[in-house]
Write a structure and sequence with these properties.
Blueprint: H1 10-63, E1 67-68, E2 86-89, E3 92-93, E4 96-97, E5 100-105, E6 121-129, E7 136-144, H2 145-148, E8 159-173, E9 179-180, E10 183-184, E11 197-204, E12 214-221, E13 228-229
Parallel strand pairs: 1-13
Antiparallel strand pairs: 2-5, 2-10, 3-4, 5-6, 6-7, 7-8, 8-9, 8-11, 11-12
């Protein structure tokens, strides 16, 4: 009997290689796609976590607001020195909203090793660019009252509340419902007054859709009838 060769033909080998390449491509695409989804999910979760922590911190600070008794009518304005009662500035950085706010609060956090009791401090929020200049960073400063009479220097201190921001905006509401983009309790118009309510809006850069930043907003009513210290 005549023996036949049992080997593969060149065409069969080429087909097998083609099928193997298709399978590898499918597996690789699926694997990289899964990794991308995991990375994006983790990034989104980190943003939501930062937003929640920042909002909770600011709400607690504002709910603990403290306004000292206005000076007696018989005293001159020059004798009334101290930290700002409530000052919110409408600012921008490269066209992005970067508002700042400072006020007196009983929500002081002692991060030193001296074991000081929680007390009254000047709380400040301010915004700066990150080192690369591609997003904004929100900082929180916390200066006890003995130090709060010194000029506020945003460049010298503060803790990062959150980063990766596209905008930070504070809006202020008067008792009659009027809306203000800024507030100054030291001005003639708003002398020794604070807003009835403050709205906070944070926008984070969205890697999935750069044109649609992730927005988080909340409002807090200030306890005006309880803030004055007599």
């Amino acid at each position: 009997m005549e023996c036949k060769n049992s080997g593969f033909t060149l065409l069969e080998i080429l087909i097998a290689i083609f099928i193997f390449a298709v399978v590898l491509t499918t597996i690789y695409t699926s694997y990289t796609g899964t990794l991308r989804v995991v990375d994006e999910t983790e990034s989104q979760a980190e943003i939501y976590w930062m937003a929640r922590i920042a909002m909770e911190r600011m709400l607690e600070d504002l709910e603990s607001i403290y306004i000292s008794k206005p000076p007696d009518m018989g005293k001159s304005e020059e004798s009334h020195h101290g930290p700002s009662q409530f000052v919110g500035e409408d600012r921008e950085i490269k066209g992005m909203s970067a508002d700042s706010l400072r006020f007196i609060s009983r929500a002081h956090i002692d991060l030193s090793d001296q074991g000081q009791e929680t007390g009254t401090a000047e709380i400040g929020y301010y915004v700066k660019e990150n080192y690369e200049g591609d997003h904004l960073v929100l900082y929180r400063s916390d200066r006890p009252m003995p130090e709060a009479s010194l000029p506020l220097e945003e460049e010298t201190g503060g803790l990062v509340l959150c980063e990766g921001l596209a905008s930070v905006n504070f809006t202020y509401y008067e008792e009659n419902g009027d809306v203000r983009e800024s507030w100054d309790s030291e001005s003639d118009e708003l002398k020794d007054k604070i807003p009835k309510m403050v709205s906070i809006s944070l926008e984070f850069l969205n890697s999935l859709d750069p044109e649609a930043p992730l927005k988080f907003a909340t409002s807090v009513a200030l306890p005006i009838e309880q803030v004055y210290s007599w």
